[in-house]
Amino acid sequence: MLSAFLAVLRRDLLLSWRGRADLLVTLAFFVIVVCLFPFGVGAETNQLRAIAPGVLWVAALLASLLSLHRLFAQDHADGTLEQLLLSSEPAVLWVAGKIVAFWLTTGLPLVVAAPGLALLFDLEQGALPVLTLSLALGTPILALLGAVGAALTLGVRGGGMLLALLVLPLYVPVLIFGAGAVDAYLGGTGAAAHLLLLGGGLAGALALAPWACAAALRIAME
Amino acid sequence: MTTLTRAPVRSPEGLLRFAAPQQFYPLAGRLAPWFAWAAALLTVVGLYIGFFVAPTDFQQGEVYRVIFIHVPAAWMSMFIYLVMAFWAAVGLVMNTRLSFIMSQALAPTGAMFCFVALWTGAVWGKPTWGTYWVWDARLTSQLLLLFLYFGFIALTRAIEDPRRADRAGAIIALVGAVNVPIIYFSVQWWNTLHQGASVSLTRAPSMASTMLAGMLIMAIAAWMYAIAVALWRVRALILERERHTEWVGEVLAAEAQTQGRAR
Q: How many domains does chain A divide into?
């Protein structure tokens, strides 16, 4: 049973590694968007400190949104997706494998890069682990929800914009709790509640999203 | 209005036979005008009570009267999304085309009510709070609900194959319905943490009974309107979907004939 999951995971990771320049583009996008904000709002240190969690989170959200189209597009174009759907393995397993591989290649670099970028905004040292943890819990939810949207808009005209319209309202709770965790730590109330809610959201998304995504892929390939 | 005299196809399922678009089309045509007249009548009564009978609010003066449009619109916008998701689920489970058509026919009306609620809320907010918009939990979740409607409408319109559009739309409607409570809860959480007690929307419910009556009548009018419009839209969608079938040809020929006679 698990072999399908592992095989697809291994294959997708290998493919991403072969085309690793693409992954750097996502990371570069994240870095550049974050660096744009001081130009827009001014480089006043206190202000930068105040907006840092929100800026980092919004940038991470946009970066993962923009990489979503890669999740299924290539497999859709060369027919791999059809073959996978025809196989006797449960679709949920290999869909989960693809999403995990997608997060490892696009989400994880953002999580690793975020603390370094937070230093540009002079974020308090103690808040860096909270930021990292909130992104580590939150970006997988973004990948899971986004996968459903990506499957629904597969091969549809105007797919990119449509995907953003579908997925962004669903991302709002993740953004609220993710950025809120850092704010709560800085405000002195402790980030535990936010992080626990993010963890709960991740567990829920992990349980439901692969099914919805598999159903959406079936509809798209009919 | 055309009254089609066609022999009813006897099927043992009773009411369920109206799940066939061919059967539902004439039924919707017969029912819609009744709902539309009820909506018109109730709107006139409700607005008369609201604008002329209900007393002036001692705090807000005459401005509060926008409530008679604002509150029913807000109720309907939320309720229609649930009904839409319900029909989407029925469609996915029972595999009935009409259910998908129903959910797609409801979406524009829901989005319209959502927009009306936001718009009247902004107009109401300016004189009472001094600002068109606050990032209050209710306003923000209403805005996100509007985005969810836009997403659903855009997705179902963008996919050309109706079968795929139906199912894809149904999935996004269900995902949205699961998310609506989460969004509402998270926005409320965010709001209380960021803003503290700014503008409280929960005024003391010291509402005169005539105000309440006017509001409830307007709410029922909004229901009737939504049903009438959805039925007419369902008819248009059925004709569009089934345009290749024989019975649609017959219907269109009959309608052209009655129109020609009227002229």
A: 1
